[in-house]
Amino acid sequence: MKVVIVDDERHVREAVRLLVDWETLGIREVHEAANGEEASALIERVRPGIVVTDMMMPVRGGLDLLAWLQAHRPEIQKIVISGHDDFHLVRGTMQHGGQDYLLKPIDPEQLTGALARAVARWNEQDQSRKHELARNMEINQLRPVMRDRIFSDLLGGSDPYGNAQTVLLSESGAPHPSSCLVAVLDVDSASAEVADRYARHRDLLYFTLTNIADEVLRRSDRGIACRNLRAENEILLFVWTDSRAARPDPTLEETLSEINDGCFMTLKCRFDFGIGTAQPFPQGASISYQSARSALHDRNLLAERAYYYQPESAGARPSFAAPRLDAFEEGLRLAVLGGSDRQIGDAVARWMAEVRRMPRISGEQLQRWRTDLAEMLRRWRETKGTRADAPGDGRALSGEADEDPNPSGVIPMDAHGRLDLDRLEAMLRDFLTAYARSRSAAGQQAQSAIPAVVRYIEQHYNKELTLQDIASQFYLSREYISRRFKQETGENLIDFLCRIRIDKAKLLLENPHFKIAQVAEMVGYQDEKYFSKVFKKLTGLSPNQYRKS
After folding, report:
1. Is there a shared CATH topology between the 157-313 domain and the 449-549 domain?
2. How do the domains of the chain map onto residue ranges?
3. pTM for the full predicted model
4. In the predicted model, is pLDDT for residue 440 greater than 60?
5. Which residues have CB under 8 Å from 142's CB, separation 6+?
6. CB 535 within 8 A of CB 523
7. How far is 5 from 65, CA to CA, in rounded Å?
8. Are 81 and 7 spatial neighbours (Cβ–Cβ below 8 Å)?
9. Domain 2-129 in CATH 3.40.50.2300
10. pLDDT higher than threshold 50 for residue 398
């Protein structure tokens, strides 16, 4: 705590210094000024918590100084010491936020009491300011999540709460346009180097890409970018268009190229974009999104990379039967159980021999193979005698706690931007080899997984999470992860998830513009009634009662 004493008489300033036990009051610095002008410069420099000032001074008097403090530093506590018992001066002191008006000659007890009250008020208000700052910081952290949620909801075919316009008005001061097209940035089209660099920091990659795209779109008021909370590997670009135009704005590809140039400057990597059709906004956003997604999924990954794909450029699909990965499941499963690198390599090579005969491989086909693999791993975990039910179970087909159930979401590309089949084979082989080796360490990994589970819940509380979802994420059985979580944290996993969600909901309820149903959805509850039931169980109040309190 710092104090500034302002008086044009030096002996008065010295008297104030001598009459007070500053250390007892918790005041560590005392500064002096001879008039209001000198004091204002000093206050800007040292930032005191309390100012003790005379009223009648040359250059700039006490009333002027109090008025300046009230306008520029209202948080500072103000005490007046004056030789004039004048109603005009006392009223001016009160009008400008002065807390005490003491008369000369100075009474030590009165001065100490006034300073003690000022210190108490400062500390109380300082705690309040810190709490408000922390609350505002958390709200600012949640605001992008709210926007992502609102615009991701448009993909369901409507604006359920009418909030898209509200967001646009609050962020740009302009109402939403009459039409838009949705473009999709495919995060999985990143280079292998970028994918490896951000393997454990995917949220940072999404944040970076969203910021690059959003900056380009907002610079010319072309649209906004956000993360698609309905799909893990997509950034959404809502690009405003002329509702009378039959085709997208001719400068659209220039805009997307500028975004891709920004990605290359930042990440040394370019990405693929699917471009949807122009549709009415917001009701047509879902249609535009589906066409953009189809353009991405239909692109031929064996052809040279084009980066920007539109539905009409996808071309007719040739008729042929693509080999299903699960048709080779038994050979892959036995190779993994055997744990031999050679057996795993041979099993993967047999499947890849069929893949290499395909004349065309689309993004959709690649995704189906990933889904096949995830389903195979799920079946292996659920097979009797192969579940990670206890530490040290050498039979458990369990991967590392923080490893993805797919070899990689990234599309391996060669120098010409085509799907690299050799790298695809190596990725699957290496993944299954590591998967097999992890079995003997399943128990040890499971014991160390709980802190990672806690972090995962704290980062994904606003999504639909079940115990099975979390167990699958960490390759553990539901029973085992539930038991270990309770042992290590003293709290049931589902109770912990509910508490995190309700804590976030309390913060959101302080914003009167959000409906209860919106708050429920933002923290992961699709059913408003169930959310209200959980909220009341944990807080003793309904969401409405909490908001009113």
Report:
1. no
2. 2-129, 157-313, 316-443, 449-549
3. 0.51
4. no
5. 504, 507, 508, 522
6. no
7. 12
8. yes
9. yes
10. no
As a whole number of Å, the end-to-end CA separation of the chain is 34
Q: 52 has which bridge partners?
A: 5, 79
Kindly report whether the peptide bond that precedes residue 105 is cis, defined as omega within 30 degrees of 0: yes
Closest CA to 4 of 83, 86, 62, 87: 62
| Residue count (the chain) | 549
Read off the pLDDT of residues 31-44 as tens digits, 9 standing for 90 and up.
999 999 999 999 99
Q: How would you classify residue 445: left for phi > 0, otherwise alpha for psi between -120 and 50, otherwise beta?
A: alpha
- C-alpha to C-alpha distance for 122 and 170, rounded to whole angstroms: 34
Q: What is 449-549's CATH topology?
A: Arc Repressor Mutant, subunit A (1.10.10)
Task: For residue 167, give every residue at least 6 positions away whose Cβ sits within 8 Å of its Cβ, in sequence order, or none.
Answer: 146, 147, 150, 151
- Please name the amino acid found at residue 296: L
Phi, psi of 31 (to 5 degrees): -115, 160
Residue type for 406, please? N
Among the listed residues 289, 295, 278, the one whose alpha carbon sits nearest the alpha carbon of residue 158? 289
Q: How far is CA 500 from the centre of its chain?
A: 15
The tokens for 415 are 């120098």
Q: What is the rounded distance in angstroms from the CA atom of residue 145 to the CA atom of residue 463?
A: 11
Tell me, which fold does domain 157-313 have in CATH?
Alpha-Beta Plaits (3.30.70)
pLDDT greater at residue 184 or residue 201: 184
Q: Which amino acid is at 117?
A: R
Supply the DSSP symbol for 401: T
* Nearest partner of 79 among 44, 48, 58, judged by Cα: 48
